[in-house]
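Query structure, 236 tokens:
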């Protein structure tokens, strides 16, 4: 029960903090720009609830930013100067013709209240199902069996993931294990080595007869091969 106290405080904060401090952070276009650190070149649109003094301050501030962050340069001998504005910095970059954040303040009231209404409906349904009338979920699960299983199995995402990725990866791994490692490496290469290496060793053993003329003949063959290789290489 002691842990319910901080959970209750966090719940109340999550529910009502957005309503209490909405105006401070997202109440108008200027507040959004200030909160996210957006520096617009020109203030194109502002909330209609802004006072004239607020608008004049915003425009004055934006124009001062333009003048302070610009430099004058000649353009290929032309007499007129151009105003170069630095790229805005901040958490979000706003193009001059982008008014999406400003337009978000002018949506209908029901759009702004819909998350709160959805939360209230979910809270009431949870209270009814799991505290007041605990037999309702069981009846719904029996009457809507397919929907219940669909939600219980998390939209069958785990099963789909199992079929598409896990089983295919397992099949590919088993194929490499049985065919690649078992038959190709252990079967062909190892068996070939077990046959070829002893045969080569037996032939090498026969060459080591212990007679001097055998070793001399091998040396002569080596010299012939070396001279032939050097001659062909020099001729190419």
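Result returned for the query:
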């Amino acid at each position: 029960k002691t842990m319910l106290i901080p959970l209750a405080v966090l719940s109340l904060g999550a529910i009502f903090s957005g309503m209490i401090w909405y105006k401070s952070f997202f109440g108008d276009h200027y507040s959004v720009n200030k909160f996210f650190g957006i520096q617009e070149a020109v203030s194109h649109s502002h909330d209609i609830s802004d006072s004239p003094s607020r608008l004049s301050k915003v425009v004055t501030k934006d124009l001062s930013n333009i003048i302070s962050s610009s430099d004058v340069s000649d353009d290929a001998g032309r007499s007129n100067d151009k105003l170069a504005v630095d790229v805005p910095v901040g958490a979000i970059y706003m193009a001059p013709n982008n008014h999406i954040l400003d337009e978000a303040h002018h949506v209908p009231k029901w759009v702004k209240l819909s998350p709160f209404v959805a939360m209230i409906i979910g809270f009431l349904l949870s209270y009814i199902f799991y505290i007041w009338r605990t037999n309702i979920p069981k009846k719904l699960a029996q009457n809507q069996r397919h929907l219940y299983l669909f939600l219980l199995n998390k939209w069958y995402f785990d099963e789909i993931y199992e079929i598409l990725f896990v089983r295919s990866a397992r099949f590919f791994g088993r194929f490499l294990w049985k065919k690649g490692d078992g038959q190709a490496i252990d079967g062909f290469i190892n068996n070939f080595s077990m046959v070829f290496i002893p045969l080569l060793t037996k032939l090498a053993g026969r060459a080591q007869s212990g007679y001097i003329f055998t070793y001399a003949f091998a040396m002569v063959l080596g010299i012939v091969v070396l001279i032939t290789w050097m001659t062909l290489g020099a001729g190419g």
